[in-house]
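Hi, here's the filled form for the chain we discussed.

Project: internal
Contact: R.S.
Residues: 228
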Amino acid sequence: MPPLKTQPSLTERVYQRILSDIVGGELPESARLIQDDLARDLGVSRQPVQQALLLLRNHGFVREAPGRGLEVAPIDTDFIRNLYEIRAVAEGLACGLAATRGAERAAEEGPRLIEEGRRAEREHSVEKLIEADVKFHEFLYEISGNSVIQDTTQPHWLHLRRLMGEVLMRDETPRRIWDQHEDILNAVIAGDAQKAEDLARQHITRTATVLLARLSKQRDRVPVATAS
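And the returned structure, exactly as it came back:
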């Protein structure tokens, strides 16, 4: 039986568009989400917008606004902290397995990913920096040979990308992040599973500490932006 060829539904496309604007910062925290305005801007009826907003609320990106309607939910620091705790374990496991199973591919393809990250850092491009970071970590998941790791961590990336964008758009790029990536890669290439796992866990823990601290600092000094 041949597979069915399906196209994303209109609701799914509206969902992805609004989500992209939230993750990318075009729709900031507490921005009001008016269904009529969104429908007009996207050139659709209200129904797919209403369904997309319901999904976004269920996934934690949108919440009930004071009074009536919906607004972009603030980044939940406790939730993000919990995600990083899970990610530290998954990342350590992935890198340990990658050192055992994927050292050859790491040597062939890894240096190019490191260079992409360093280039984005030199260009001070937040968008490119986030893309390079995601690509590097997903590469490690892939060469670990354990598809469950990638399936488990995939839903987390949207929340983590939003945090990275929120912090990096208003602050300097965290230093040494690509030095840490290169250290992890070298341990994988060397086939040192224990070192790769330890470095990966340390990297994720440090990253979480830096990003959450900077987000807290920003919120202390900058009023939350709103939009209507």
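Let me know if anything looks off before we file it.
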